[in-house]
Fold:
Amino acid sequence: METIKELQTRSEIIQAYPVMHELRTDLSEETYLALFGEMGKEGYRLFALYVDEEIVSLTGIGERVNFYNKHHIYIYDLITSPNHRSKGYGKLLLEYVHRLAGELGVEYVALESGLARRDAHRFYEEKLGYEKWCYSFRKKLS
Structure:
């Protein structure tokens, strides 16, 4: 049986680390916990999809406002454990986020996806109705 739950306790957040690490491979558990604490102050929320007692999929979101997306939910993270992919769990989590966004009265749900993740792009566009409308850029300083 699938259950979606917002993770709020330290033990829940630690339990989610192995799944998050599948997406954010550069993060040690220590860095993950430190960043989570900082991000939480800015409204970051982490939701897990459980099958029985096991976390199989995660999404990290934040409610934001800016000039181009207006009042929106931004999806920072979406990952499903490799041995649980192609079972509809990512879609279930995104549909949950869409309902939450509707309850909050936001205008958009937005996300970014790495250029090489073509299967993910197809999933967002074809299965969930997202539109590709911009590129995102960043520059490493140091």
Notes: The longest strand covers residues 54-66.
